[in-house]
Amino acid sequence: MKSQDDISEKQVEPVKAFSATERIFLVIGSLGLAFAVLTDTIAVIGRHLNIALLGSIEIVQACIVLLASGAIVAATKHGNHARVRILTGRLKPDHSAKLNYFTAIISAIFSLLMAIGCAWIIWEVWNEHERSEILHIPLAWLRLLLFIALVLVSAYFLCSRFGESKK
């Protein structure tokens, strides 16, 4: 059994610098989370004081798009998606690598298909100036951000298979 000193002397991997794209999406996601928490906090306090914050649900929904876009880009770039390794843990390393290659390709295709669907919706409703019901939050820009995030996710999955995403 290892002592506490052995564990504390373990080499820690240095923090890698984030690219400009990652920083942008991390800031977007962080602001989305902070604003969603702030909005919900104000709405809950307002409910207890019998003061309604109209549109709080719309604000939180818009913030979730920001949060999810930032989180999915960061998680994909660094390979931090939740994974179940029941099968790959029992396979030989070369078979496990082939399965991981296949899942990355499938994930890239799935993300790309979602991006294509998102682009299609953007194309169809861009000139309609679609907005939320109460606060009139423009939805096209949120969809555009999600589209960009999905394209990046697909690219990161492909790059992870060709060894370029770890740079």
Q: In short, what is this structure?
A:
The protein is mostly helical.
Walk me through the structure.
By secondary structure, the chain is mainly α. The chain has one domain (about 15-80, about 90-160). The protein is about 65% helix and about 0% strand. The protein has helices spanning about 5-10, 20-50, 55-75, 95-125, 140-160. The longest helix has about 35 residues, at about 95-125. The protein is globular, with a radius of gyration of 21 Å. The two termini are about 35 Å apart. The model has no long low-confidence stretch (mean pLDDT about 85).
Layout: helices, strands, pairs:
Elements: H1 4-8, H2 20-48, H3 56-77, H4 93-125, H5 140-161
Largest sheet: none
Average pLDDT rating: 85
Described by its quaternary structure, the protein is: single chain
Shape: globular
Number of domains: 1
Radius of gyration, whole Å: 21 Å
The count of strands amounts to 0
The computed structural class is: mainly alpha
Measured as a percent range, the helix fraction is 55-70%
Give the low-confidence spans: none
Order of secondary-structure elements = HHHHH
Q: Estimate what percentage of residues fall within beta strands.
A: under 5%
* N- and C-termini, Cα separation: 35 Å
The number of helices is: 5
